[in-house]
Amino acid sequence: MADKSSFTKEEWTLLLESPMMAGMAITAADPSGLWGLLKESFAGGSALAKVMVDPGANPLVKALATDFSTSEGRSTARDGLKAKFANSQPADVKTKSIEALRQVSAVLAAKAPDDAPAFKSWLRQISQATADAASEGGGLLGLGGVQVSAAEKATLAEISNALGI
Q: Band of the pLDDT at 137, cuts 50, 70, 90?
């Protein structure tokens, strides 16, 4: 089974960023306002927390979540995301996130083929949880909207394609 030592520093940073990229692509596809943004952001964070206590979690996913739980891991991911999205327009966030997930898929295939299916499935679950977190297109407090918008559904398909699942 792969762990942090199986990857270069740059590859591990890309993996650390990947849970946030999986959620950011969805959020950027159809922004939900302040409350929706908070709910969607929470979805990714809770996925990281859940895997920490899941005895059946894939070891590589758990290693990543454990590293992310440290201040150094969070700083590495944050700094990497800042660099990726510096001077980006909102429309670029989705495209850059999906491209990064495509790179994650390639790194996993090359360095952790046994862990790749579980890791990619976990990222796809984060995307789905993010899409499900807030109603889209509704009025006050999202009432009357749809749970997952057409733009989010299309982005979920793009994410699946980028991850090769």
A: low
